[in-house]
Design goal:
Radius of gyration of chain A: 21 Å
Structural class of chain A: mainly alpha
Mean pLDDT of chain B: 89
Largest interface: A-B, 85 and 85 residues
Oligomer: heterodimer
Shape of chain A: extended
Order of helices and strands of chain A: HHHHHHHH
Distance between the termini of chain A: 61 Å
Radius of gyration of chain B: 17 Å
Strand content of chain B: under 5%
Helix content of chain B: over 70%
Number of domains of chain A: 1
Largest sheet of chain B: none
Largest sheet of chain A: none
Low-confidence stretches of chain B: none
Number of helices of chain A: 8
Order of helices and strands of chain B: HHHHH
Mean pLDDT of chain A: 91
Number of domains of chain B: 1
Strand content of chain A: under 5%
Amino acid sequence: MDSEKRNQNYNMYVDAKLPKTKLFPSVAKAFLVGGLICCFGQLCLDLYAYWWPTLSEAELGTAMLSTIIFLTAILTGFGVFDWLGAFGGAGTVIPITGFANAIVSPSMEFKKEGIIFGICVKMFSIVGPVIVFGVVGSVAAGLIYLII
Amino acid sequence: MEFNIMNYLISFLVGGLICGLAQILVVRTSITTSRILVLFLMLGVVLQAFGVYPYFKDFAKAGATVPIIGFGATLAKGAIEGAKKGGLLGVLQGGLTATAGGIAVAIVSAFLVGLIFNSRTKHLK
């Protein structure tokens, strides 16, 4: 059998074996979970604005995001977030919970390889591109603003 | 204390819509987590750079700030405000200064959780 045909057969086999996600139920779940996480964020914003009226809007936003990131890290540690992620799909990835989960999971997983080369290096294996693109993109935006 | 129920409704709807769109991308194109995060982050940077994001945020409240779009927008906002205040140096400092809190919490909690907890075998399909 020539290799091209073999590769084609293999790809068809992989496609057949890959778990099929149904579009509508998974989108509905992502909508529900993502929406609820955003509602929780709004609750944090309102509570913090009530408890510390002197904080500015930007500081309130940072406090709210920090709360969500910290809670996600703890939930990921206890393994609860894996379950939530399996249910919610992109509903847990797109909110800041996805950022937090993506930095905590590899940190736990590669602990065996040591603190420096395991935790500290692997921590950024998923989140690294996000930070790189974010910083490069923001500097580009600032430069364009300077020039115009 | 103002608990405006409309803010929660709009947060839920807008946040849910963004996540639903991302889920459609995931199911239809089998795009990886890292790519989808980067894609939506850059969307936030672009929206902020064109000055659209502040209106979106006023409208959608936490529905705009909790998704990673808000993180990108905050980075870009910091860099642009830095450009207004401190020129080139401001551009370099602004983005990370504006998001420093979130990044620090993420790194510290990831380090601590990594030290304390062990990764368990996944039984998920």
